[in-house]
Structure formats: C-alpha cells, structure tokens
Specification:
Elements (H helix, E strand, L loop, with lengths): L16 H9 L6 H12 L6 H7 L7 H13 L3 E5 L5 E5 L3 H4 L2 E5 L5 E4 L5 H10 L10 E4 L7
Parallel strand pairs: 3-5
Antiparallel strand pairs: 1-2, 3-4
Helix pairs in contact: 3-4
Length: 153
C-alpha cells in the first residue's frame, strides 16, 4: 500500500478536552507535544500512522520517539484505538466515547484512502454466530478493501 494522502472525514474537528481531562485525572501532564498530538488526531478523523501524526504536527513540536511514547500512553488509557489494515503499519484514531469506538473502514489498496463505514451488522447476527459456536462476549472488527473511485479512473 502506498502512503496515505487522501482521507474522508478530515473536515470534522473533534473536541479533545475529554482526553485532556482524562489524562489529568490519572496524573498525566498535558505536555505541549501531547496536546499537539491530540489536536492532530482530533482534526483527522481517520486512522493515522505515527509518521503521519509527526508530519501533521507543527514544525519541531516533537520527535518520532515522543509520538511513539504518546501513542502508547493514549492507547493504554483507551483514548485511541489501534488499527492494522494488513500492511504491518499500526494506525491510530482518537476515540473518546463508545459510539466512536465501534465503526468499520473501507480502505483503498492503491492510495490508502480511508472511508469510515457507519453501518454495522445487527447485534442479533453477532449473537447468533456466538451461540452457534458456543462463544460468549463476542465482538467484531471489520475492514473492507478495494480500489477507490479516484484510483480506478
């Protein structure tokens, strides 16, 4: 997959104050780099790699090691969700509530454009699959892959 360059849903800015409040409540400082990383994630409503996050930060805000450490902390605290689209590169997305946490993606295998898919399988289907196989507490994660309209023209 080529580096991501175009994404949907970037125009929506997410309020990061719940994330900073949660960090403070657990005795973590809101450093300049952490705030800048949260702001980048709040502006880009698609999963981003650590390098994409670094590239989107204001010049000389922090280094790649700081981004990795920050993402590790944010993941541990449940403020970001980690995605793997099968190319071996971790991507992260800010998720501040349960409704945001569960959604799916359509990923272009040519340009890496990501489209968020709001529709989901009915809970009854999830429960039917669980029951048929003797499982409990079943959840799912689903990503679709294909060629976006811009790439197939």
């Amino acid at each position: 997959m080529k580096p991501a360059s175009r994404h949907c849903c970037d125009e929506k800015r997410q309020d990061i104050s719940p994330a900073t409040d949660r960090l403070r409540s657990r005795d973590h400082k809101i450093t300049g780099p952490r705030r800048a990383i949260l702001e980048v994630l709040g502006k880009h409503r698609h999963p981003m790699t650590n390098k994409e996050i670094l590239a989107a930060l204001p010049s000389a805000q922090c280094d790649l090691a700081t981004v990795y450490r920050s993402m590790h902390l944010l993941l541990k605290m449940g403020l970001v969700q980690k995605f793997d689209f099968g190319d071996g590169t971790a991507r992260f997305e800010l998720v501040l509530d349960k409704a945001q946490r569960h959604h799916h993606h359509l990923v272009c295998t040519n340009c890496a454009k990501v489209v968020e898919i709001e529709e989901c399988f009915p809970e009854a289907l999830e429960q039917k699959i669980a029951t048929q196989n003797g499982f409990r507490a079943v959840s799912h994660r689903l990503e679709f892959f294909g060629i976006c309209p811009e790439c197939h023209h």
